[in-house]
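Risk register update: the risk of archive-format incompatibility is retired. Evidence:
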Amino acid sequence: MPAHSSYDAVIVGGGHNGLVAAAYLARAGRSVLVLERSATTGGAAVSTRAFAGVDVRLSRYSYLVSLLPRKIVRDLGLSFAVRRRSVSSYTPYGDGGLLVGGPGTRESFARLPGGEREYTAWREFGELTGRVAARVFPTLTEPLPERSRLRALVDDATAWRELFEEPIGAAIERRFAADLVRGVVLTDALIGTFADAHDPGLAQNRCFLYHVIGGGTGEWNVPVGGMGALTDALADRARAAGAEILTGHEGRYIHPGAGGAEVGYRTGDREGAVAARRVLVNASPQELAALLGEEPPPPAEGSQFKVNMVLRRLPRLRDTSVDPRAAFSGTFHVSEGYGQLATAYREAAGGGLPTAPPSEIYCHTLTDPSILGPGPAAEGYQTLTLFGLHTPARLFAADHDRVRAELLAATLAELDHYLAEPIADCLARDADGAPCVEARTPLDLERELRLPGGHIFHRDLSFPYATETTGRWGVETHHPAVLLCGAGAVRGGGVSGVPGHNAAMAVLGH
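Archived output:
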């Protein structure tokens, strides 16, 4: 039960954004209470021993870090580190593959038809997105800029048009000729977003932008110790600063009033309430509406298929010119050519599973073996994280378990096309002798994490500039005492801590 009857700030939800807000506010001398319904903090950014008897701590849901500003790490004095992956990506094709990010990138491109032209276009587009990243990323922890100001900061008419105004497919098709290279570029626009390359609503552009601006460089790094290392460090800093964190306490309602709000909660079979000058909701916009007893926003729909695996060893590749350790240390693209992605989208939009499910895979343990216990480490175990695209929640609604099993089988079979041995032969076994593989659909994520429709961003991402409906920080609601600090806030999505930081700044009057 809470230690007090009233607080300066009550935070509903102990995911990473709520913990960031709690740490900032407590360090500023505010009394802070965090209510978390689960038995542990962390939300989707947790590490878990997912398989009985297997001493491996998987980043079960979210798994890479790009959008977390170093500013937050420095401000809060977090004991947390990331490591750079040695290779950006590997994409098999024919009897070979495109290996990007190492010293042989140009030579790898040269093996493609028109390879030198594609390499030059790749570099030019990378330089363009790099300039945008360097100028846009620092604004994420500042008050929301007006659209015109952000455009002036970008200071590149071509970049603004290609990333902010026209469907990203137009830029991709104009710049690149090779289907495989087009597909590799497009994947950043589709992770967690169900859209076509030419969707006029530009959901794919907003997704692309957030995937290429992280850290001011666009680099996706591996969290040392797994994602749970971040949220454990945040919880430690918040508690050390004086925040009170109660797990097993579910927020039940928010009643705004003059000068603050009442927050109801439940723990076990007991109910209670506390007063707060400000309430920060680290949950989806749908959950915020439910807490306030208001009409929910339009439904969201996630579109991803997450598969976690523990292997006894990495599989051999059909492409014998590439070491599997190099291929899997970056993003391993499976059936993500431009045409394949378009076909998968059409099939899913028509109500069927993709015939050739597109996915991307990476091996955490090649960069950070610390998530392996002593036994698995000595035996050479590795992990694989697979993220499938174009699998909207609607596909699983009628017969969830059957469709999930069917998609898992098809996804692993698609991976097998590029391997010299079945992935099943490399899987470790748990204490019961079952293979160490688990799959999560959008509906699984909705049930386990209360993500609306399984949407990993809570709703479609927004461009990082002010509109008529946004407040100064992009976290405000129509109730002055209530702020939204979850992924559904403007500039939310991903493991960033940005909404938590911005909500804390709003409370502190910055």
